[in-house]
Amino acid sequence: KMKVLSDNAQWFEDNAPLMEDHKKDSVVGVTYKVVTVAGESGDASPSTPIGVNLPNANWIRKEVGSKSVSLGNIINAYNNSRSSGRLKEFVNDEEEYELEKAHGELADKLHTALHEVIGHASGQINPGVGETKETLKNYASTLEEGRADLLGLYFLYNPKLQELGLVDDWKALGTAAYDGYIRNGLMTQLIRLNLGDDVEEAHMRNRQWVSAWAFEKGAKDNVIEKVNRDGKTYFNINDYDKLHELFGQLLRETQRIKSEGDFAACEALVEDYGVKVDQELHAEVLERNKQFPSAPYSGFVNPVLVPEMNGDGEITAINVTQPESFAAQMLDYKKNYSFLPEVN
Ligand SMILES: [Zn+2]
Description:
The protein is 51% helix and 12% strand. It is mostly helical and 344 residues long. The protein folds into 2 domains: 3-289, no CATH class; 304-337, no CATH class. Strands 1-3-2 form a 3-stranded mixed β-sheet. A two-stranded antiparallel sheet has the order 4-5. A hairpin with a 2-residue loop joins β4 and β5 (232-237). α6 (94-119) crosses α8 (140-156), α6 packs across α10 (170-186) and α8 packs antiparallel against α12 (240-260). The chain is globular, with a radius of gyration of 22 Å.
């Protein structure tokens, strides 16, 4: 279903709110596939990404394109483990809750697809400017993730998605997507941090700087309202069209930063909006979250693949079985695959 996005990659590029010089004339070779994961290792296990987009080098992307895979069974597992209790605690009202219930899952899938396929593939670096890991250094990753998120956000609230047959009601879906992004970026992702910690991880940083920037820039028009009710904080979006515009402005700016390699602007954006946490709000969020037993991060066990042999020792089938437990699997890995010395 998401193939329609890669088929229309050029439309998204042409209609993105970027400066003309920063757009690609021809977006090449963007492919998107959903795969079923049979096992993961290294830094993709036991906690895992939900999608992978390669290569990272912009010059290769520009010339031959890029590939995205979305990890279908991982996304399904996440969706089935969501706690509606936690959602109820942090939504501002019943309407926000119902919209998330009705559209949240599809909105997340579409955001991931737009982020991976359209987001990372979009835009170009000015001639003579280096790769972002050289120009933007330690901020390159969070800038790039935020830019891809913003491209997704910009098009999530857009009738084009309905035209392409991806959604039944673009406005309801876009509304749910914006509610969820702001709720997470300004509040609920804080359950992953200990009180007093800064935000360090690139994606968490970008979700905060995107949300906090939009909150501040929209303050004079009350685009996003900080509500306090019975000692609890909520964020309510009053003007979705304005927020859509703000996301477009920030997208244009992040693309400018990337295209020009503007380190100073990048550092200011990330440090001013994406790193520090409001201590009072953080303490409140942790307190409200205490009642929910589910962990803030999810980990996955790998299925155990057991070959079935015939009399000649040929494999005739592979049986997919579950390990006894996560701990048992880790101990088994240590016993059978621990090839490196523990002390060098
Ligand atoms: Zn990404």
